[in-house]
Amino acid sequence: MAIRDWPASERPREKLLQLGPQALSDAELLAIFLRTGVTGLSAVDLARRLLTEFGSLRALLEADVKSFCQHHGLGTAKFVQLQAVLEMGRRHLESSLMRGDAFTDAASTRQYLQRQLRHHPHEVFACLFLDNRHRMISFEPMFRGTIDGASVYPREVVKLALKLNAAAVIFAHNHPSGVAEPSQADIQITQRLRSALDLVDIRVLDHIIVGDQHSHSLAEHGQL
What we know:
The chain is an alpha+beta fold. The protein has 9 helices and 5 strands, in the order αααααααββαβαββ.
């Protein structure tokens, strides 16, 4: 049966308009993006099959163009469209954070950092530079590779913080393993960076470890 023949309350578009996007399943949201199905499959059926083939919605969203286009019902046009949607979402979140007081909201801060870092296949150490009202000045990925004392350079962080006239900073890095627990090296480098920034009166507010589904705040756990 075609989706147009379903009861109105079960059609993804009508359901979204009535209940909001949060009420839809992954397959229903993906079906709206796909717009149409393929021969023998409605858009929802195709969406369910794609989610099974990719393993998850996240895996589909983060697929490269080659693996994305290998699946029936997808192609270069859909890949380009999806990348545009994802980038608009990232820019919307970033602009909302830059407009005012969002970084007093721990949940929004974590959401932003997770979107920026969790998809990297290697560790990326980044700094979120803030003004004296904790509004974002700039998000800067600074170091790549294993995060330890040899790969993160406090003098480079201090140099950029002064250049940007930052009053505070939040550190963040991802764990490609998906586990958000900090290592001893994570805690040690945070202490070194904090000591260096203390010398120039720049506050370290937190260090967020980004995992697959969760993040870990050193400040909230008394590890800063």
